UniProtKB/TrEMBL annotation, chain A:
Organism: Neoroseomonas alkaliterrae
Gene Ontology CC terms: plasma membrane
The name this protein goes by in its record: Branched-chain amino acid transport system permease protein
Molecular function terms, GO-annotated: transmembrane transporter activity
TM region(s), chain numbering: 20-43, 50-67, 73-90, 102-121, 160-180, 209-227, 233-253, 284-306
Family: Belongs to the binding-protein-dependent transport system permease family. LivHM subfamily.
UniProtKB/TrEMBL annotation, chain B:
MF terms in GO: branched-chain amino acid transmembrane transporter activity
Main localization of the protein described in the UniProt heading: membrane
Coiled coil: none
Pfam annotation, one family: BPD_transp_2
PANTHER family per the UniProt record, alphabetical: ABC TRANSPORTER ATP-BINDING PROTEIN (PTHR30482:SF17), HIGH-AFFINITY BRANCHED-CHAIN AMINO ACID TRANSPORT SYSTEM PERMEASE (PTHR30482)
Domain of life (superkingdom): Bacteria
InterPro entries per the UniProt record, alphabetical: ABC_transp_permease, LivM-like
Membrane-topology descriptor: Multi-pass membrane protein
Keywords: Cell membrane, Membrane, Transmembrane, Transmembrane helix
TM helices/strands, residue ranges: 54-71, 77-98, 105-122, 154-177, 198-222, 242-267, 279-302
Cellular component terms per the entry's GO annotation: plasma membrane
Keyword set includes Plastid: no
Organism from which the protein derives: Neoroseomonas alkaliterrae
Protein name (Swiss-Prot/TrEMBL): Branched-chain amino acid transport system permease protein
Length: 311, 311
């Protein structure tokens, strides 16, 4: 064991750091999906497309502005603004004109409507941005690298991935928990999540809550995409990859659980990056193995609440 | 209505044969459509119980790879079809024992997980599966008869059509049998079913095994027709496509899957030929329109047009 650690210690350290930063991204996307599911009761397949569009928009706005002599420090705010823009435009459009028509429909129909949206947005994205990889990493370069002490060695790692990605995840987690539990709007959202009928009977405008939640969820997906854009080249298919991973997080965490989603994202992010460095064949499988194991022991998810059986 | 449905099926089969004679490339498209239609009948069965599997591409890919792997040793299409069906049903039994403990979103997501695990195994175990390059399938003898290419393609088309008829008739029987009626019970209120002494999990498991078996048959036919198998057969979007076809065709009757599959494949081929980058968008839009304006699917529209009930 000690010998193994001698040989692979640094690799493990790198895997942990990588896992931490990817867990941050996974959380941002998954928590949006989870929030939307909690309120609207719709698993939004198009959530992955919003992630991809967020990433592409951030990269192209960044590229455009850098040719116009934008100061370096603005790289990070540009990422955030693009995410907000994508969420604020697409979120209400999708909720108002498409989802609103099918709230009363069957579950399979709702799932398929978002699947149809996913197919449409996937091609919109190809038409707008083409199929060539797009890369813009100003934000990553701006913040530089750091030598992380690990045992007697140092691991060079980018500040962006070490601090910004997990940082945003933590801020989102705390902010969201505070928003949902301490503010009126947040409590209204929780009320609709718990019992839509009762909440509506108390005079809560469910339609408004749906619109608000969906737009917010869309912003979170776009934020995940925008923040991921400096770390990797953007290619078609990133939306499809992201959404399946988020599905796994949501089902494992339990539906509507925010802290659960955080813990699960951490498990899956770490599990995946450890697999990347030690058993690369298993990389894609790890999240599903975690999911199956968790659901074997806790069928309602890690933090899920068992629903009472109705007769 | 029953007689009418049979006549309609005959008319559809006649139209398919005529189209296959008129344009040889349509023969290929329609064989694939028949194969997918057969697989989608399994989705239909599960939909009766209100359960959406977002992972049945697993059984298609399993059937297809069974053909690809065993063709050099077990060189006969009929034998391979039997083995693929049996193998897929067996795999369905093993996975079904696990996933039928779950309902709704958990059922869907666990199926998705299994399908993605299979996808990554196919992709990563390069020395066995040749990864994303896939495996070529040679023209094989059918029931001991060695055939040239044209005769082979016609034979597979004929087998697919015959199987569609036979399995469609069996599915009709299944749906009106006590097992089929119990499936509807799972959808409306499972607890009541249990109170009557009907083991709901067993009912769902039986349907699941059948759906896996027909998935295997569909996959084997696809491998024999396209003569090339790749891991993409098992990607999650392929599973979504199956549910798509089920809803497009209409979940009300046995003809639905075949109407849906034929429409799906034809739209896809034409859209891909005329708008290479936008075929997904066209399919997605078609699906949205059907869901929003013709909830019964194509079969529902057909049934309304001839004045019957869509069952």
């Amino acid at each position: 064991m000690a010998e193994w650690f001698q040989d692979n210690g640094l690799l493990l350290g790198l895997a942990l750091l990588d896992g931490l930063s990817s867990a941050g991204l996974i959380f941002l996307v998954a928590v949006g999906l989870n929030l939307v599911f909690g309120v609207l009761r719709i698993i939004n397949v198009a959530h992955g497309s919003l992630y991809a569009i967020g990433a592409y928009t951030a990269a192209s706005i960044g590229l455009f502005l850098s040719t116009r002599g934008l100061p370096q420090w603005a790289a990070l705010p540009v990422l955030l603004l693009s995410a907000a823009l994508v969420g604020a435009v697409l979120g209400p459009l999708i909720e108002r004109f498409i989802l609103r028509r099918i709230y009363a429909g069957e579950e399979v129909v709702q799932l398929l409507v978002t699947f149809a949206l996913f197919m449409i947005l996937e091609d919109v994205q190809k038409l707008l941005w083409g199929v060539q990889p797009i890369h813009h990493d100003a934000a990553l370069k701006l913040l530089g690298t750091i030598d992380v002490p690990f045992g007697s060695d140092f691991i060079p790692f980018t500040n962006y991935q070490l601090f910004v990605l997990p940082g945003f995840a933590i801020v989102t987690l705390i902010g969201l928990a505070w928003f949902l539990r301490r503010t009126l709007t947040g409590r209204v959202i929780v009320a609709v999540t718990t019992d839509r009928e009762a909440a509506t009977a108390m005079g809560i405008d469910a339609a408004k809550v749906f619109l608000l939640t969906f737009t917010f969820g869309a912003m979170l997906a776009a934020l995940g995409g925008a923040l991921s854009s400096p770390t990797a080249a953007l290619v078609p298919g990133i939306g499809a990859q992201t959404i399946v991973l988020s599905f796994a997080v949501v089902a494992t965490a339990g539906l509507g659980q925010i802290e659960g989603a955080a813990l699960t994202s951490l498990m899956m992010g770490l599990g995946r990056s450890i697999a990347v460095y030690f058993e690369p064949e298993l990389e894609v499988v790890v999240p599903y193995i975690i999911m199956v194991l968790v659901l074997l022991v806790r069928p309602q998810g890690l933090f899920g609440v068992i629903e009472t059986r109705r007769v | 209505m029953r007689k009418l449905e049979f006549l309609l099926a005959l008319a559809l089969a006649g139209a398919m044969i005529a189209a296959a004679i008129a344009a040889p490339w349509l023969r290929f498209v329609l064989t694939i459509a028949l194969a997918k239609g057969i697989a989608v009948m399994g989705i239909l069965l599960l939909l009766r119980a209100g359960q959406v599997s977002f992972g049945h591409a697993l059984y298609i890919a399993f059937g297809a790879y069974t053909v690809a792997f065993l063709a050099p040793r077990l060189n006969d299409a009929v034998l391979l079809l039997v083995v693929a069906a049996g193998g897929a049903a067996l795999l369905g039994l093993v996975i079904g024992l696990f996933v039928t403990r779950y309902r709704q979103i958990f059922f869907g997501m666990l199926n998705l997980a299994m399908c993605m695990v299979f996808y990554s195994l196919l992709e990563k175990l390069y020395h066995i599966t040749k990864g994303s390059d896939g495996i070529r399938v040679e023209i094989m003898p059918v029931a001991g008869q060695a055939l040239d290419r044209i005769a082979y393609e016609w034979t597979i088309f004929g087998i697919a059509l015959a199987l569609a008829f036979a399995l469609g008739a069996l599915l009709r029987l299944y749906l009106v049998s006590p097992m089929g009626e119990a499936l509807k019970g799972i959808k409306t209120r499972e607890t009541r079913l249990e109170f009557m002494g009907v083991p709901a999990r067993g009912v769902l498991l039986a349907a699941y095994v059948v759906s896996a078996g027909v998935g295997g048959i569909g996959g084997a036919l696809i491998a024999m027709t396209s003569r090339h198998v790749t891991p993409l057969l098992s990607y999650w979007t392929a599973s979504g496509e199956l549910v798509f076809i089920a809803i497009l065709g209409g979940a009300g009757g046995v003809l639905g899957p075949f109407l849906g599959a034929a429409a799906y494949e034809l739209i896809r081929v034409y859209a891909a030929a005329s708008f290479a980058d936008a075929w997904q968008m066209i399919l997605g839009t078609a699906l949205l329109l059907v869901i929003l304006f013709a909830p019964g699917g194509l079969w529902g529209m057909a049934a309304r047009a001839i004045g019957g009930r869509s069952r």
